[in-house]
């Protein structure tokens, strides 16, 4: 039996992987299951077929964890043969884990998708689903978060579940030590992270920035450029192509933008960029102030 966990949200997929392995712990301790791990990016994959076909001590069944076979720069034929052998056997249970797939990774998955008994893609969370997930993670750590707290987390981290969990754990540590967690003032980057997903939170951050003395036109131009960057990244991701160096977008920006655009469509962002052009004309001709245009864009 073969099970696939993959996708850009590696915090949730890793957590699921740990839970699945932990579920076999009693059988491992009883000696009825052997756990074996292979990383296609680091281990010698030529040994994998022998491990799958070989007998286990005392006839134990095998739980094989295979990581990064779709994204590792290694030949794929061994993975293909192994998955073809194990998808119907009851002697081996294979869990395949991988992250965000590029064009080559998607081609590899297409070749073997028929061999998976079950597959789960972990796409970025957004909106209500993200807030519900944050509440659950916070409750598991004994941290009470208000709606404003959750909005602040999503403003700072977007849909980055690794970053959100780190922030929640910091709050838990502060609470245990009796120290109040410092609250950082919102930045224009927080505004960019919430602009598409939470208009209410974005409006609050915008007005806070303006009250703090931030130049309205600079905010407008930042958001227009940010929208253009997100659209560029999304257009490449939609085609399954890595963002090339010729796009002149820093790799860190590409990584962060990839998380933000997960639930957005190219059409939505194209229309928003068009609205920015319209509002830019209004500002330059004196028909509207930058603040009025920004509030209009937020609905």
Features:
elongated, 56% helix, 3 domains, Zinc Finger, Delta Prime, domain 3, DNA binding, DNA-directed DNA polymerase, DNA-directed DNA polymerase activity, five-stranded parallel β-sheet, Rossmann fold, 299 residues, alpha/beta, 10% strand, nucleotidyltransferase
Overview of the structural elements:
This protein has helices spanning 10-23, 25-29, 48-53, 77-86, 103-112, 127-140, 147-157, 161-177, 188-194, 199-211, 216-238, 251-260, 266-284, 290-297; strands at 2-6, 33-39, 61-67, 92-97, 118-121. A five-stranded parallel sheet has the order 2-3-4-1-5. Helix 11 packs across helix 12 (251-260) and helix 11 runs parallel beside helix 14. The model has no long low-confidence stretch (mean pLDDT 85). It starts with a strand and ends with a helix. Helix content is 56%, strand content 10%. It is elongated, with a radius of gyration of 23 Å. It folds into three domains: 2-121, 3-Layer(aba) Sandwich (Rossmann fold), CATH 3.40.50.300; 127-184; 191-297, Zinc Finger, Delta Prime, domain 3 (Up-down Bundle), CATH 1.20.272. Strand 2, helix 3 and strand 3 form a beta-alpha-beta unit. By secondary structure, the chain is α/β, with parallel strands linked by helices.
